[in-house]
Amino acid sequence: MAPLCPSPWLPMLIPAPAPGPAVQLLLLLLLLLPAHPWSTQGAPTTGGDSSGEDDPLGEEDLPSEEDPPGEEDPSGMKTEPGEEDSLKSEDLPTAEAPRDTQGAQNNAHRDKKGDDHSHWRYGGRFQSPVDIRPELTAFCPALRPLELLGFELRPLPELRLLNNGHTVQLSLPPGLEMALGPGQEYRALQLHLHWGAAGRPGSEHTVGGHRFPAEIHVVHLSTAFANVDEALGRPGGLAVLAAFLQEGPEENSAYEQLLSHLGEIAEEDSETWVPGLDVSALLPSDLSRYFRYEGSLTTPPCAQGVIWTVFNQTVKLSAKQLHTLSDSLWGPDDSRLQLNFRATQPLNGRIIEASFPVGVDSSPKTFEPVHLNSCLAAGDILALVFGLLFAVTGIAFLVQMRRQQRHPSGTKGNVSYHPAEVTETVA
């Protein structure tokens, strides 16, 4: 007869001495402890070198609750039913996108001057900007650090800086190349900013409901298309690099090269020429940590198919520089150009990807999208500790079983029994 397979439960049937109180307590805790839901997402380490300019986001600056509802959008815009912004609705849409590479009419905004935006409608379901919930993002290891080529411009030729009544826009010359990945080459066309007002932050994107003081957008055209008109509405036709701006203790020298000229373009439709600068210095130093999703332009025609890259690291400007940005320009009808951002739009089932693992407690700090202080969440550490205790208890149990097998309870080793001899003594 074939030998039977030894049962894995056989050792458990062998009687053993009752475990001590400590072991009993450990076993009881292990039985009561629910299975820990290990997450597929880990926690990122701190971002790249900030060098006093950029900082990772933290949890302490995230508001404890969402912005109060009921505030009206300053632009008078209405959204389609079911697309109400759950955060702030006090948003004025304005995100300029280039119209062509020659700069003659270098933006996608086709509304007539003085438009109050009240008639804007967003027919598409995949609109921008959006609220980024770090705990709901999907880690995508295929997202590699961005590659920027030719972004360090020389002072000459000079660049056109324009107040178009909706934002301040810097036209960029040919030669600024950016790759999102293999076969995804783009060329930069222009950059512009979005801001709020005194005491009212004005970034377009939000992180966990938190809005930042300002936001920069660098707009790119895919090399697969000859111009913006061809690329509008085509998947991946346009790509935008976005970074949050936050208040820091020192002046940002790169941004000062632009902000120092705002007084020259205070009036709507005015322009000036500024020396070339290092455009990459306007972005965070760490280009490897970012969020990625597909959205739209944030002004009419609000064309979709735009690939958005929102950096996790923020850029710091001094309080004076942020004030200069929000208080220097004038828009239509002699109104101060402020709060030039669009309300966040619903995701409608879209998944936002992250180039780095994001933990559940990741939240924006003062200006960047999200960093964790620890590589393991508290629940992970607790589960690890109990796992180790379980392993130690198991080993101790096996050792005890080996001892029982080696010395059966019915005998005592090295002890011989000799019957006593009785000797009678005759008196």
UniProtKB/TrEMBL annotation:
<dbReference type="GO" id="GO:0005886">
    <property type="term" value="C:plasma membrane"/>
</dbReference>
<dbReference type="InterPro" id="IPR036398">
    <property type="entry name" value="CA_dom_sf"/>
</dbReference>
<feature type="signal peptide">
    <location>
        <begin position="1"/>
        <end position="42"/>
    </location>
</feature>
<feature type="compositionally biased region" description="Basic and acidic residues">
    <location>
        <begin position="108"/>
        <end position="119"/>
    </location>
</feature>
<dbReference type="InterPro" id="IPR018338">
    <property type="entry name" value="Carbonic_anhydrase_a-class_CS"/>
</dbReference>
<feature type="region of interest" description="Disordered">
    <location>
        <begin position="41"/>
        <end position="126"/>
    </location>
</feature>
<dbReference type="Pfam" id="PF00194">
    <property type="entry name" value="Carb_anhydrase"/>
</dbReference>
<keyword id="KW-0812">Transmembrane</keyword>
<feature type="region of interest" description="Disordered">
    <location>
        <begin position="407"/>
        <end position="427"/>
    </location>
</feature>
<dbReference type="InterPro" id="IPR001148">
    <property type="entry name" value="CA_dom"/>
</dbReference>
<dbReference type="GO" id="GO:0004089">
    <property type="term" value="F:carbonate dehydratase activity"/>
</dbReference>
<feature type="compositionally biased region" description="Acidic residues">
    <location>
        <begin position="51"/>
        <end position="74"/>
    </location>
</feature>
<keyword id="KW-0456">Lyase</keyword>
<comment type="similarity">
    <text>Belongs to the alpha-carbonic anhydrase family.</text>
</comment>
<keyword id="KW-0479">Metal-binding</keyword>
<feature type="domain" description="Alpha-carbonic anhydrase">
    <location>
        <begin position="105"/>
        <end position="356"/>
    </location>
</feature>
<protein>
    <recommendedName>
        <fullName>Carbonic anhydrase</fullName>
        <ecNumber>4.2.1.1</ecNumber>
    </recommendedName>
</protein>
<dbReference type="GO" id="GO:0008270">
    <property type="term" value="F:zinc ion binding"/>
</dbReference>
<feature type="transmembrane region" description="Helical">
    <location>
        <begin position="381"/>
        <end position="399"/>
    </location>
</feature>
<comment type="function">
    <text>Reversible hydration of carbon dioxide.</text>
</comment>
<keyword id="KW-0472">Membrane</keyword>
<keyword id="KW-0862">Zinc</keyword>
<keyword id="KW-0732">Signal</keyword>
<keyword id="KW-0325">Glycoprotein</keyword>
<keyword id="KW-1133">Transmembrane helix</keyword>
<dbReference type="InterPro" id="IPR023561">
    <property type="entry name" value="Carbonic_anhydrase_a-class"/>
</dbReference>
